[in-house]
Amino acid sequence: MTRHRIFAFSVFATLSFVIAASSLSAPAQAPAAHPIIKFNVKGAGTGSGQGTVPFGIVAGGSILGWYIDSSNVYHGFLRSSAGVITPFDAPGAGTGSGQGTFPQGINSALVIVGTFVDASGVYHGFRRSNGGKFIQLDDPGAGTGSGQGTFPNALSGLTDAGAIAGSYVDSAGVYHGFLRSPSGTFEKFLDPVGSVNTQAAGLSSDETVAGTYYDSSGLFHGFRRAPGGKITPFDVPGAAATAANNVEAGGTVAGSYYDSDGVFHAYIRTPAGAYTKFSVPGAGNGAGQGTNAGESNATGWITGNYVDSSGVNHGFVRE
Q1: pTM, to two decimals
Q2: What's the Cα-to-Cα distance from 96 to each of 5, 75, 115, 119, 294, rounded to whole Å?
Q3: DSSP state letter for 81
Q4: How far is it, in rounded angstroms, from Cα 255 to Cα 294?
Q5: Which site among 42, 43, 183, 273 is 20 to 30 Å from 225 CA-CA?
């Protein structure tokens, strides 16, 4: 499985998945009232599994993502509201196929968190300031072998001092969620009931956390963790697998789900549990193709990627 953020499963890239079939009605296309702008990063590869993968957006319109070059190396990028794209790589990131820099979260001050894979296949977290300064982040409980490490996925706040949510893989290869305080303390939080592996993917300004877990049957589910610690699991109606990629203050969640044919589609879930589904025109309808909603902002814009019928990733913004 490629390390793109479909289902927020980037930290589960080394695992094998079995997705159960289920009946599902055809997803609704994006309505005409919500224009979609497509874009690609210069230097992105054009082969299957390569291309441009945006997933973070802030109120001002800046977009965060990564792109996969023709050698299958991953790089981060930041796209301004004016369309100017700035690529970046974390110090220490490997340059082999499947290695590189995987940004995951951004706040309104344009501070970025994410993961880089070193030449030995170990994952490390990073925080990048608006000025481009990198700080390495490693959870004390994270393993140090290949495929293990730390995965910061989201941050809150208006400065470098915000809280960070993510996951780590311990020395036994098990995934756990964490919440890192502004002072730098890593707190492990309880996994959803029935979880075998847990990834915290989204964090709001009020420290609501959203993410994905899978159970002992290999089925994927979304969850939302309230600021007080209460966890609410959920599944998109009719989905074979559900993941949560982002959450706003108050509890609105954006994410993706697979249908019974292995095609993925985007969704928005309100705090009351109502779902809106959509797909980007031009997205493929074969297994492993479709539309992924990476992140939303407070004004209702959503960014993500879609995979076309040739397996190439493209970015989108849904107004």
Answers
A1: 0.70
A2: 19, 12, 15, 7, 25
A3: T
A4: 6
A5: 183
Does 2.120.10.30 match the CATH number of domain 6-318? yes
Q: Which residues of 73-86 are buried (b: 16+ CB within 10 A; e: fewer)?
A: bbbbbbbeeeeebe
Please give the chain's pLDDT, 319 residues, in tens. Answer: 233 343 344 433 332 222 222 223 334 444 456 788 899 999 999 999 999 998 778 878 899 999 999 999 999 999 999 999 999 999 999 999 999 999 988 888 899 999 999 999 999 999 999 999 999 999 999 999 999 999 998 888 766 678 898 999 999 998 888 889 888 898 877 788 889 888 888 888 888 899 999 899 999 999 999 888 889 999 999 999 999 988 888 889 999 999 999 999 999 999 999 999 999 999 999 999 999 987 777 777 888 889 999 999 998 888 8
> Length of the chain, please?
319
